[in-house]
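Thread amino acids onto this structure.
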């Protein structure tokens, strides 16, 4: 399925790449990967997206006392840190598939936080019993996965949690997407964060693709789109 969904236009279908982000490659210097994760953390701090994403997540569990939250693909752990700061009794299991990212989070304040558990988890095959969490959250990571793996995350996230919240890059209409790419491309060969940003943009899923993936996974999905904000989707078991 194209990233623009089954009904994607011809131009939209061209806006795709099979190249992997530095973050997903095993042949890349760990320092390059670290620079991408640090840049994500920095932009989240400067533009307030860690707080914004934490507020979106906490709204989903506003009615749940002492909620258990699973963060998948946490990268730097800043979202989990905000969740723990904003909610006085939530427990957060902070995870990523990348062992070095998990080691870095475990070596920092999250590793010592009494309401945090830090561990390696592959979002496509989650090592946890059914319904262990009130919420699973996967931020800025869903586009990393090809359709079959993305559908597996929808199935697994809604198996282990009552709700799976996906926050990701929006896939704009194709002409706007071309403009977005044109502003980024000149810097992509020089700045690893921009390199990964271009690939992320080309691999981002449209609302129609998210609906098709949810259908394939056999889960319900509610999409909350805004013109300039992130793509937000909440998946639940049928
Ligand atoms: C762009 S980073 C996002 C980091 C952080 N969530 C944020 O909002 O800035 C994508 C993260 O997804 C992780 N990831 C990729 N595939 C994954 C998988 N199958 N399971 C769990 N995490 C995965 C990567 O290791 C990386 O840390």
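Threaded sequence (238 positions):
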């Amino acid at each position: 399925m194209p990233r623009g969904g089954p009904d994607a236009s011809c131009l939209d279908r061209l806006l795709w790449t099979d190249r992997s982000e530095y973050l997903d490659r095993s042949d890349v210097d760990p320092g390059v990967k670290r620079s991408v994760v640090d840049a994500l953390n920095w932009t989240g701090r400067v533009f307030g997206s860690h707080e914004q994403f934490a507020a979106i997540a906490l709204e989903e569990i506003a009615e749940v006392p002492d909620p258990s939250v699973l963060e998948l693909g946490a990268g730097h752990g800043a979202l989990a840190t905000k969740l723990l700061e904003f909610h006085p009794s939530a427990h957060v299991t902070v995870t990523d598939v990348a062992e070095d990212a998990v080691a870095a989070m475990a070596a920092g304040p999250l590793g010592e936080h009494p309401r945090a558990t830090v561990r390696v988890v592959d979002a496509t095959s989650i090592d946890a019993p059914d319904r262990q969490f009130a919420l699973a959250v996967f931020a800025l990571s869903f586009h990393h996965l090809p359709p079959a793996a993305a559908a597996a995350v929808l199935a697994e996230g809604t198996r282990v949690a009552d709700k799976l919240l996906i926050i990701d890059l929006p896939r704009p209409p194709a002409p706007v997407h071309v403009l977005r790419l044109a502003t980024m491309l000149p810097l992509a060969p020089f700045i690893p964060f921009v390199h990964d940003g271009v690939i992320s943009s080309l691999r981002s899923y449209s609302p129609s693709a998210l609906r098709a993936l949810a259908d394939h996974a056999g889960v319900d999905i509610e999409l909350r789109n805004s013109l300039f904000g992130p793509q937000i989707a909440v998946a639940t078991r049928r």
